[in-house]
Design a protein that fits this description.
Its EC number is 2.7.13.3. Keywords: ATP-binding, Kinase, Membrane, Nucleotide-binding, Transferase, Transmembrane, Transmembrane helix, Two-component regulatory system. It catalyses: ATP + protein L-histidine = ADP + protein N-phospho-L-histidine. With 469 residues, the chain is an alpha+beta fold. It folds into three domains: 215 residues, no CATH class; 74 residues; 165 residues, 2-Layer Sandwich (Heat Shock Protein 90). The radius of gyration is 30 Å and the shape is elongated.
Length: 469
């Protein structure tokens, strides 16, 4: 049981520290913490209190340990089904007014409070009245499980993360439901000793998920901090480099212009050609460093309310006109506006579109969609190019990484820039790809984060489909 205690409280700490503002993470962390509290009660009962008695600990101190055991046990039995249902309600949000949602959270705690106040007090053999608690704890867990399983993710990458959550959370919780409530209500007591195996399975899935596709956004947070550190280092370096080269390039141009005037006056054609080469090189050098610095400087947003569909069209239409051999498919759900920096979003989206066109080598199908999800608005750019393997996807957000060998104008800053733009908008950037199956990039905007609002236009409602052959 000590392993269960350490594993569950470690998971709770990771979930709570990863994103303190997330209701989903806070509640799932509470589920893990309640499970760990039950393990603590078991460790106290089986090991620590007997060891304390053998060591000669005073009766008052042993009584204190007993109170900790009782509190931990009650927290586990009453807290686990309650917080699990709250987690399910946050994970698969049912449409209801915010005031009603808050009221439901308070109403759900009533069964636990009534049992705590009206049933016999805690003792080691019957910590709770199982024959009563089973009638609300089991429905809480079963309804929460159904809610979680009914959640649907339209995108493959997010769907994988959903099933990792299901695999890590549901088996231990359902097994604990049987061992902690169902069987004890029939007289089979202390069945919780068998929970270790399923908790170990859930912890294993959690760790594997953490380092593959992510778990409740935790891997995204780890990556985000790594990318932020790299991006800040690149920003500082390019700022210094840009300043130094700009000054030296200005000196080169000044003296080269003087030599150019002298070469013209003395009619030295060969010297004039050499000076023109130096001038051209200094200008190219300054332009290159300036472009890198422009992409890596810290972003300052100027948010205004803008229709997202209009931003997509303004960005894509000029690019579309230049690529006649690419079939553009646009499906944009109109009417959604948000507080965004349209210039930065347009630039980020343009980078994704250009990346897709370069991957397809100017031929193929490019699909750009704007869709509404329950809590997010999603812009997807999907190409029919060669796709990327897992190693390429893992490096895609690193500054200066590029798969376009030989392209002197490509610095590998398009995706890192788009990543930063989405982060500034409290959103996220997801890349999904397989070799031979193209690449899909999702720009996800949380509705709350951009204060999204829906305005139905009388001329056209719903989505627009635009196809160019």
């Amino acid at each position: 049981m000590l392993f269960v205690l350490i594993a569950l409280w470690a998971i709770a700490a990771i979930l709570w520290l990863s994103d303190r503002r997330s209701d989903i993470n806070r509640r799932l962390g509470a589920v893990a913490f309640c499970g760990g509290a039950g393990a603590l009660a078991a460790v106290l009962d089986l090991s620590w209190i007997p060891a304390a008695a053998e060591a000669g600990m005073s009766a008052s101190n042993r009584q204190l340990l007993y109170y900790v055991q009782a509190a931990s046990s009650l927290l586990s039995y009453y807290g686990l089904p309650y917080f699990f249902l709250l987690f399910a309600l946050a994970y698969h949000r049912i449409r209801m007014p915010a005031a009603m949602y808050r009221l439901v959270q308070w109403l759900l705690v009533i069964p636990a409070l009534l049992c705590l106040l009206l049933t016999p007090p805690y003792n080691e053999l019957y910590p709770i009245t199982f024959t009563i608690v089973v009638w609300w704890a089991v429905p809480f867990i079963l309804f929460g499980t159904a809610l979680i399983l009914m959640k649907r993710q339209p995108y493959a990458a997010l769907s994988r993360r959903h099933w990792i959550v299901c695999s890590a959370v549901l088996p231990p919780v359902l097994f604990s439901m049987v061992m902690n409530y169902v069987l004890p209500s029939t007289g089979m007591l202390r069945m919780w000793v068998y929970n270790t195996w399923f908790v170990g399975l859930g912890a294993t899935v959690f760790v594997v998920g953490l380092f593959t596709y992510g778990f409740m956004g935790v891997r995204v947070l780890i990556d985000r901090r790594r990318f932020d550190t790299t991006y800040r280092a690149v920003t500082s370096g390019t700022a210094i480099l840009n300043h130094a080269i700009k000054n030296d390039a200005a000196k080169m141009r000044l003296f080269s212009e003087k030599m150019k005037t002298y070469a013209i006056e003395t009619n030295q054609a060969e010297l004039l050609a050499d000076i023109e080469t130096v001038l051209s090189a200094s200008k190219h050098m300054q332009d290159m460093v300036g472009r890198v610095h422009q992409r890596t400087e810290d972003l300052m947003l100027r948010p205004q309310r803008e229709p997202l569909a209009d931003v997509v069209l303004r960005t894509v239409k000029p690019i579309e006109a230049l690529h006649k051999r690419v079939t553009f498919y646009l499906a944009l759900e109109e009417g959604w506006s948000g507080m965004i920096d349209s210039a930065q979003i347009g630039e980020a989206l343009g980078n994704l579109v250009v990346n897709a066109l370069e991957a397809m080598k100017g031929e193929g199908d490019l699909r750009i969609t704007l869709t509404e999800q329950k809590r997010e608005l999603v812009i997807e750019v999907r190409d029919s190019g060669p796709g990327m393997d897992k190693n390429q996807i893992a490096k895609a957000f690193e500054p200066f990484y590029t798969t376009k060998a030989g392209s002197g104008a490509n610095f590998g800053l398009g995706l890192p820039y788009a990543f930063q733009v989405m982060r500034k908008h409290k959103g996220a950037l997801h890349v999904m790809s397989r070799p031979g199956h193209g690449t899909s990039v999702l720009m996800t905007f949380p509705k709350k984060g951009i204060q999204a609002a829906r305005i139905e236009t009388p001329a056209k409602k719903g989505g627009e489909a635009h196809v160019v052959d």
